[in-house]
């Protein structure tokens, strides 16, 4: 197996970013295939994911990211169990393995088994040597390390099967937003992307908001009315109707704008088409609580500036950078850490 140089990898990923940023027939066909295979992967959502990936693979960020990457001359085989909750969600893990010169043994999610192979094949068009570094497998075997993404339940099985090799095992995480009441309608409007992009199914999707006591709910609902077409998606609509029925039958207080249910709840993980909220009197208490719950939280969206809390601007939770690693575990450091 020939070794791959860092400059080759950077060039190939830059070319992939350029390819994904320009509409073409091959990409359109791949989007159509993904849409037919998974009803959640609408053309709009797949295009959203492709655009976010193209933005991630910009020249400046790739150069900066690779400054901290060592490309091994003795590749190890890294087993990858990928999620499929949103389009191309597993690409970053594959990219990290390839960027470090290792071999990606990929178990695709049945929910995203069309689009990712297409994108990786496009990468190999620029750098054919990568073809020997990509293996698709129904069952992982003969691996040197594992990165597995699943739920809190599947993580127990992952720990059992992969606990004896170097591993990253990811569980459920959710994202939250902290409002102060001083947000502009524009800020709340782009918060709608953090909540509703990909139908709210990603770990970077905001599933709960914290609002000050006395907050006018209309100040939240009115700016996000522009997202009302989401209710026309039959699967999302089914979830909305189901949860609404449950709340009505059980006489549970909630707000309803016709496409999103807002329910007061201490939990972080809300059902699909539902956004949890909690009120607070002292924002510092919210900050302290979120610090304690950091292992359950993927990202926090807020205008609050705090040395104790890393936050993202409104509308940015679905636009991670190359170095925004899932669960705040540095995948590159992990991959560089188990070599001989």
Topology of this structure?
Elements: H1 6-20, H2 25-37, H3 43-56, H4 59-66, E1 77-81, H5 91-99, E2 103-107, H6 115-126, E3 134-136, E4 145-149, H7 152-162, E5 167-170, E6 174-178, H8 185-196, E7 206-212, H9 218-221, H10 234-249, E8 255-256, E9 261-264, E10 274-280, H11 283-292, E11 297-302, H12 331-337
Parallel strand pairs: 1-2, 1-4, 2-3, 4-5, 6-7, 6-11, 7-10, 9-10
Antiparallel strand pairs: 8-9
Helix pairs in contact: 1-3, 1-4, 1-6
Tell me the number of structural domains.
2
Total E-strand runs: 11
Q: Strand count, sense and closure of the main sheet?
A: 6 strands, mixed
Sum up the overall morphology in one term. globular
Number of helices: 12
Portion in strands: 15-25%
The CATH superfamily of the largest domain is identified as Aldehyde Dehydrogenase, Chain A, domain 1
Give the averaged pLDDT, no decimals: 94
Distance between the first and last residues' Cα: 17 Å
- The portion of residues assigned to helices is 25-40%
Structural class: alpha/beta
- The main sheet orders its strands as 8-9-10-7-6-11
Q: What name is given to the CATH topology of the largest domain? A: Aldehyde Dehydrogenase, Chain A, domain 1
Q: Give the low-pLDDT segments.
A: none
The CATH class of the largest domain is identified as Alpha Beta
**Which architecture of the largest domain per CATH?**
3-Layer(aba) Sandwich
Write the element-wise H/E pattern from the N-terminal end onward: HHHHEHEHEEHEEHEHHEEEHEH
Rg, nearest Å: 21 Å
